Amino acid sequence: MPKNSKVVKRELDDEVIESVKDLLSNEDSADDAFKKSELIVDVPEEKDTDVVERSEVKDARPAWNSKLQYILAQVGFSVGLGNVWRFPYLCQKNGGGAYLLPYLILLLVIGIPLFFLELSVGQRIRRGSIGVWNYISPQLGGIGFASCVVCFFVALYYNVIIGWSLFYFSQSFQQPLPWDQCPLVKNASHTFVEPECEKSSATTYYWYREALNISTSISESGGLNWKMTICLLAAWVVVCLAMIKGIQSSGKIMYFSSLFPYVVLICFLIRALLLNGSVDGIRHMFTPELEIMLEPKVWREAAAQVFFALGLGFGGVIAFSSYNKRDNNCHFDAILVSFINFFTSILATLVVFAVLGFKANVINEKCIAENSEMIIKLVKMGNISQDIIPHHINFSAITAEDYDLIYDIIQKVKEEEFPALHLNACQIEDELNKAVQGTGLAFIAFTEAMTHFPASPFWSVMFFLMLVNLGLGSMFGTIEGIITPVVDTFKVRKEILTVICCLLAFCIGLIFVQRSGNYFVTMFDDYSATLPLLIVVILENIAVSFVYGIDKFMEDLKDMLGFTPNRYYYYMWKYISPLMLLSLLIASIVNMGLSPPGYNAWMEDKASEKFLSYPTWGMVICISLMVLAILPIPVVFIIRRCNLIDDSSGNLASVTYKRGRVLKEPVNLEGDDASLIHGKISSEMSSPNFGKNIYRKQSGSPTLDTAPNGRYGIGYLMADMPDMPESDL
């Protein structure tokens, strides 16, 4: 061995990085090693390598404190409000128990493979969504930017829902609950029930008038609702404080925010099962209607629910997995989190319909009592003969079965006159068939059911605290999907970026706390995420399977996991999933085209909802939301394809992207203070000789303060590669 090699070996304390490509593969892990004295040897030709894990070099990227913390973070992100107020509605609407079969099939075909794909690329490349897709294919780097834009749009209105939950939570510490009874209005002569409340219900009135103080159309702003503005501010303060230190702060909160909803759901299920009518609700829920399974609409809605339930395309999954060790078994994580999400939806459905079954039973008993009194009056008036009433019937304690019997007898005897009697059938199934979802379920139907619970304030506090925690868990992942890729790419301080992001989102979010704000929430929910996210995930699948190469990706997984994943994933990623996603995209576009764009406005005089179309400016906003979310994809593609941006200013290192590589190119740094900015000294500058150049970094050379989980500004030296296109992006 040559003498010089031995000297080099002693200087590096066995920490030698043999090539530029190895250095690039160890961007994360080389930070601490560079605090000493390193030697970088540039070999002109070397076999193309992927990201290589070097366990002997300490990893400077923040990491999860434990595997449990990471799983809870992924569960908290994927399990959200949709599991509680969307899945039960779809289950009821699409055939009850029969809906579970297409959902489970699509979970295996679309959900788990794509969830596994996002976990894998995040863990392998250890960057946020922007860095990951730049690495996979620079020309498709816009995928990461599009994910960030969608995350921002969703965060704007999702935190408003958390604000609503905070408001109801704060109002739940009262006995009786403020939405238990309709308010009374006094005037000079007498007292009467509020007409708007009398025409609807106490909980409906409280939601639309007391909580939202809603206007009659989206064009009528009505000014800010100050109660909701304060709640929105509180929600953003909580999110900001939880996210300001990244996973080091939010990870600890996950123990509570992810586990508490399960405690509440189990408590609600146990309590509801002890109430009359709960079993009727569950039986109604899971009674299968097999013929509905053949309808394409059922499969489309099941696919969409699988897609959004797992949080695919947002970037939060990639961001969270990027803090894992590279040998973590993300295949197991993908299956575990997916099925936890599925069984959480089942648990939430049981709870919802057990409670709604109890509520339907209460309403049905009230209906029977009112109609029994009407029958007694009709008998006294002679409209109905006493002889047709069975002798065992006791109207003072009439059961549902007895009422059904009397109703059927009267209907047969009084065939022609029956409609004029104005008697109701009082069937519990009729009440259960009134499908409700979203805010209608959480803030009206479920809230009304809880007013009939013993100790209703306690259950109300628990329910809305659960909604807050479900929302926060998803918000943490959504904000992480913005913060992590931006910090990784632009090397800004995470604390500053988090505060700016939350402050900006709160200011923009003020449009959602106007009196017309609920209509804007509907608009953003319908148009800001659905199509853009589908396009993002389709391109993610294409980028990995066809641009990067599915065979190479499978080899990467084998190297990372220590075993080759089942061949099932190969065929899913290459053939089945892209086709299914394209079909879902086409079906969603067709459904959006057939559905008139509009919203349900609350009419104060009629105390009911009325469907209204968006005004012209509203349609412009709807289209702009979709265009802005997708726009980064073609823009970045064109810029990098055509080399439209070329940094030749000479002050800062440009970023050169090549498939599987991100290279910093020092440009005219001689005599410039940029070397100090990048933590370099003159001895680090690349030589024009591309043979075997050795760049020496002295210990004690100035370095940048690195971002907590960014693309660390530690001034890696990278060989000049003049044959590669340059891009500022």
Folded structure, characterized:
The protein has 729 residues and is mainly α. The protein is 60% helix and 5% strand. The chain folds into 2 domains: 63-350 and 436-642, Amino acid/polyamine transporter I, CATH 1.20.1740.10; 364-433, no CATH class. It has 29 helices and 9 strands. A 3-stranded antiparallel sheet has the order 7-6-9, with no helix packed on it. A two-stranded antiparallel sheet has the order 1-8. A two-stranded antiparallel sheet has the order 2-3. Helix 7 runs antiparallel to helix 17 (330-381). The relative contact order is 0.16.
List descriptors:
mainly alpha; Amino acid/polyamine transporter I; 2 domains; two-stranded antiparallel sheet; 29 helices; 60% helix; globular
CATH class of the largest domain: Mainly Alpha
Report the sheet with the most strands, covering strand number, pairing sense and barrel closure: 3 strands, antiparallel
Give the N-terminus to C-terminus distance in angstroms: 44 Å
According to CATH, the homologous superfamily of the largest domain is Amino acid/polyamine transporter I
Low-pLDDT parts are 1-59, 647-729
Question: Which word captures the global form?
Answer: globular
Instruction: Return the CATH topology of the largest domain.
Output: Amino acid/polyamine transporter I
As a whole number of angstroms, the C-alpha radius of gyration is 31 Å
Helix amount = 55-70%
In CATH, the architecture of the largest domain is Up-down Bundle
Beta-strand residue fraction: 5-15%
Structure class: mainly alpha
Query: How many DSSP helices?
Result: 29
Number of domains: 2
Transmembrane segments: 68-87, 99-119, 140-169, 226-247, 259-282, 302-323, 335-356, 458-483, 495-513, 533-550, 571-594, 614-639
Main location: membrane
GO molecular function: metal ion binding; proline:sodium symporter activity
InterPro entries: B(0)AT2, Na/ntran_symport, Neutral_aa_SLC6, SNS_sf
